[in-house]
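A quick aside before the break. I want you to see a complete sequence-to-structure record at least once, exactly as it would be stored in a machine-readable document. Don't worry about memorizing anything.
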Amino acid sequence: MLNQISFISCFISDNTSEHAGGGIEARSNANINVMNCVIYNNSGGSEGGGIDIYGATLQCMNNTFINNSLFISVLLSL
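That is the input. The structure line, written in tokens, reads:
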């Protein structure tokens, strides 16, 4: 099982999830690095339109978040 992933200098856009983490979703002891990325126009059901992290570690540096949304409530759920 993959437990470490890095997103570096990337564009994450126009993704949809019915539950959580429209752009990125991480669970269960994962280590996620997001650096120099644009997280744009993603939508999630009830948690984390741009990024949803639950039980994972997030290192998030120098990113731009634009127009991420939920069908119900928050943009970044940690």
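Two observations worth writing down. The mean pLDDT is 85. The chain has no helices and eleven strands. We'll return to this after the break.
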